[in-house]
Amino acid sequence: MTMLILGLILFLGVHSVRVFGEGWRTTMRHKLGDNGWKGLYSVLSLAGFVLIIYGYAATRESPQILWIAPIWTRHVAALLTIPAFVLLVATYVPGNSIKARLHHPMVLAVKLWAFSHLVANGMLADLLLFGGFLAWSALSFRAARARDRAAGTVYPPGRRVPTLVTVIVGLAAWAFFAFWAHGAWIGVKPFGGG
Questions:
Q1: Residue 145: which pLDDT band, with cuts at 50, 70 and 90?
Q2: Distance from the first to the final alpha carbon of the chain
Q3: Which among 194, 65, 61 is positioned nearest to 123, based on CA atoms?
């Protein structure tokens, strides 16, 4: 459990700099330069991510169960992750209407992913992992919207074709993950087995 907690503190801490320390971030970027800052940010993020993966895997050996989620919650979680995948893809497809309207689709994708997994999982490690990401995404979204308002950021309107591409790629990515990768990589099949 210690490794998971350290990983969450490191990973979410690094990703919270813009939420809680925008001035400090600006100072550090000037001191380290853009490449130095990005390198430090990437190394710390990767270290946190690795700790989260190994720490969460270790908790499966002696799980601390807080509640037993009914089996149908797996299906609810799987369905809730459909828009999460579409939102994630919307982050990267230029000119789509989803990003034009919501402005920060990746953070919203994390919020949906975390919430959906809280619904379907009842171990202490799940509460820490998905609860931590849910809290971070809520704070991060609020901070990002505040930065947009302060900067007067205007997002260009989206177009139909990029939006359609976003939805199709998002659905395909969800299907790949839900029906194969989640079971193969994580050991849990959302629609039965594992």
A1: very high
A2: 22
A3: 65
